[in-house]
Amino acid sequence: MKKLRLEYSSLLQGEFAPGKRNLLFVFQVNCPGCFFYGFPTVNNLQNAYGEQLSFLGLSTAFEDFELNTQDNTSLLLTEKKLVGETKKAAESHPNDFQLSSINFSVAMDVLSDASFITQENISYIGNNFPNYSEASTEEQQQFDLKIKDYLTTNPIIPVTFTLNQFRGTPTFVLFDEAYNILEHWFGHKPYDEIESIVKPGL
Questions:
Q1: CA distance 103 to 83
Q2: Three-state DSSP class for residue 135
Q3: Contacts of 6 (CB under 8 A, 6+ apart)
Q4: Is residue 29 within 8 Å of 83, Cβ to Cβ?
Q5: What CATH number labels 8-111+157-198?
Q6: pLDDT tens-digit readout, 114-132
Q7: How do beta strands 171-176 and 181-186 pair?
Q8: Domain residue spans of the chain
Q9: pLDDT tens string 23-32
């Protein structure tokens, strides 16, 4: 069973210790979909299952680095301040945008630089892909070079986002106290479908 690699620089709100079942919500502050779908979903789940399920929001940045920052995440939490495309979307669709209080814990992904690009991390990322471990040494080396070339094009590398090879935001990960990933998905799902995912085992 694949494990979640969860690393964050600091908790910006609340506390987090993994329980029997946990839900990680990965978002960017400059991500309208995270606010139209992600935050309402997690708030509703927190209200319904907060006694049985632990929640953690993780602010990350894989693009728009000038907007997806720890400072802007803190302003979101303390002042509900929106930025960039999220702000534009909220102003354009005020009836569809309802950001109530954010009651779950929120942390900031570790935002690293070229020092992240080590052989250990490259191999870890490679093992996220099918057949990497069964490939020949030469094939693995070629794949490693592609990973390294990709990473070097990024001025900032979000550690949790990159190590787990998330596809984008919003991303949701259901995991246990040993960080085994039970379920994960990217993008919007109907609320009743999400409930059917998180409720078993509670």
A1: 20
A2: coil
A3: 24, 58, 160, 179
A4: yes
A5: 3.40.30.10
A6: 999 999 999 999 998 888 8
A7: antiparallel
A8: 8-111+157-198, 114-154
A9: 999 999 999 9
Provide the token pair at 54: 């632990």
Distances (CA, A) of 78 to 73, 74, 103: 9, 6, 12
Residue among 150, 184, 153, 155 at smallest CA distance from 169: 184
Nearest Cα residue to 21 out of 161, 202, 158: 202
Helix (H) or strand (E) holding 39: helix 39-49
Q: What is the pTM of this model?
A: 0.94
DSSP letter at 117? -
Residues with Cβ within 8 Å of residue 89, at least 6 apart in sequence: 32, 35, 36, 97
* Sign of the CA dihedral running 1, 151, 109, 72: negative
